[in-house]
Give the backbone structure.
Amino acid sequence: MQITLTQPDDWHLHLRDGDMLSAVVGSTAAHFGRALIMPNLVPPVVTGDDARDYKARIEKALIDTGSNTAFKPLMTLYLTETTQADDVVKAAKEGIIVAVKLYPAGATTNSSSGVTNIDKVMPVLTAMAEHGVVLCVHGEVTDSDIDIFDREARFIETVLEPLRTALPELRIVMEHVTTKDGVDYVASAEKNLAATLTTHHLMINRNHLLVGGIRPHYYCLPIAKREEHRQALVLAACSGDARYFLGTDSAPHTRTTKESDCGCAGVFNAANTMVCLASVFEEANALDKLEAFASLNGPKWYGLEPNSATMTLKKTTTKTPIPERIPVADDWVVPFDPARDIYWQVL
Ligand code: NCD
Ligand code: ZN
């Protein structure tokens, strides 16, 4: 069996910078036409000029590493409490960025410059609503008294719903949704709301992370939830509903920084996402919906044409190996282990 789809895009990707960028960019460029590049560098990508410079570094890394130069990075800005509305609107109008990313301060890796109180960024969000600039949100509250497994649901209630009521014209993507609450909330919205789903949250639950020993390479944010939530995510991804699309949240960290007494959050799945998704959609009897999820719904939301290239995935009789470790300086990145046998390959 084999299936051919429009070439996919990745609507949430961390490429980092420097040695790490060079090490990982080829994994995404080999399969994807475009990716929405997250701005959480240190220091973050905050202005239109920063985004233009970062894009140039990514394009240079594609050339220097002999990667597929047809791959297009689509840039985002990191929303801070000093972001200027004019700069955002200008960068969007000039086509330098396609979205702005909201990180609640302290929510995840490199988010210390994030927003402490949404009221402080209302002028920028108002301008974005007016000019149709998309807001991508890391949807978790960060209050120390809120349990880590409840942070997404609480964000919907206390931040997202009030924001959507205040600015109904603002187009929002709830990034890497990990709960039934999240997909249900998106399903209930009449307009201007979509969600990305990651490869790993479609495949692992919190038992994979914690039972039989702690697995640092499954630790990411938002943290993997109960199995019933994973099942709700699979149903959403496989529904064909145009509001759900792929954002891998592939987030490389070196092995040493993950396998540590305070390990970093992030799963590196860029190299095997498409074979993993084929397996998930096959198991859900929904292979015919994979193209909508990975290749069509995202461009539709962003008002772009789907890619003109195609990708063919083939069912195999021998087990697909987990991609080899990716060397970075004197360390390496450990690719995502999907915790099940995969029998698919990208031709
Ligand atoms: C991301 C990273 O490492 O930059 N980590 C993660 O666990 N997903 C940040 C993020 O998207 O939350
Ligand atoms: Zn991310």
Q: What stands out?
A: The first helix runs from residue 18 to 29. The chain has one domain: 2-346.
